Amino acid sequence: MTLEASAAPLADVYDVALVDLDGVAYRGPVAIPHAPESLTAARAAGMGVVFITNNASREPGTVAEHLVSLGIEASPDEVLTSAQAAAALLATEVDRDAPVLVVGGPGLVTAVREAGFRRVSSADEHPVAVVQGFAPEVSWRDLAEAAYAIQRGARHVVSNLDLTLPNERGLAPGNGSLVGAVVNATGVTPLSAGKPEPAMYQLAVLRRGAVRPLVVGDRLDTDLGGARAAGYPGLHVLTGVSDARDAVLAAPRERPTFIAADLRGLLEAHPAPAPDADGWWRCGARAARVQGGELRLDGQGHVDIDLVRAACGAAWAAADGGHALSPDAVPELTPEAAPVHGR
User: Fold this and answer.
1) Which CATH number fits domain 83-192: 1.10.3720.10, 1.10.150.120, 3.40.50.1000, 3.10.310.10?
2) Disulfide engineering: 164 pairs with which of 2, 171, 213, 230, CB 3.0-4.6 Å?
3) Distance between CA atoms of 205 and 210, rounded to whole angstroms?
4) β-strand 129-132 against 99-103: which pairing, if any?
5) How far is CA 238 from CA 31, 54, 137, 216, 218, in A?
6) CATH code, 10-82+196-267
7) What pLDDT digit, counting tens, does each position of 120-170 carry?
8) List 22, 221, 223, 304, catalytic entry
9) Is 22 in the active site?
10) Could you confirm whether 20 is annotated as catalytic?
């Protein structure tokens, strides 16, 4: 398994991009460089866009307003949150109009209400399920109520299990970290609706009637793992949590189909790495190989995205052949900015 090639820009090949938000379109209140203009150009090429987020704290309309304020075209019906996915999952577990304890923000509250459930605020109101999603205002008391309800037999459904949440200051604790506190208190493993489970992507594709969807994300464990689980191709952009070194070391279930420095990758053709007779994996003018248990790179000094692609080809082939590299055998790889080709 290696990266694939696309002779045409991805925006010309795929009919809808399923785009993650945090670390792809924006970081906190700031747009990721090149994201607004790249998404505008992709739409102009005929590519639809659906924003898919594991963050359950905000309602789709609020998310769309945030995107528009950053210069990114978006409407509420182009936003799919893990709160909506959690409510859909909850509907498969308990009856409509059942009492449900909601631990999360306005986005989760609205999604649960619109799905037909009756919200309660205490374990003493006998909820049949607890649905949990991230919100900055979630407190110890909220987590304690969730634990009490689950100990009394309530189902535990969560929007996602992301351990971290990227923002403009760094990585903050994500919903998975808060869920972990409840799990530690109850010993009960929850059902998760968010990425890397495939349900959110499948729901987005169904809503849009897409035929050739492309997942776009910055996290290998959730975004690209979810793409693999759903059977959709994925573009990994190096603007968020998982960097190029992580991509080189990626497990098969998390490997992207394409890789790019940022969302300008939607407007590019993508060459694929291929091995030569001497054991080097080559992509464009760059080359990498695994030798003696170490990843060796060509001697051109600077790092560009073709070198990252070549390194992925070499490392993945070695791992698939039973010779996986240790992290210590892979150097840091930070591609330098480069002009976009293909449009």
Assistant:
1) 3.40.50.1000
2) 171
3) 5
4) parallel
5) 14, 18, 30, 11, 6
6) 3.40.50.1000
7) 999 999 999 999 999 999 999 999 999 999 999 999 999 999 898 877 788
8) 22
9) yes
10) yes
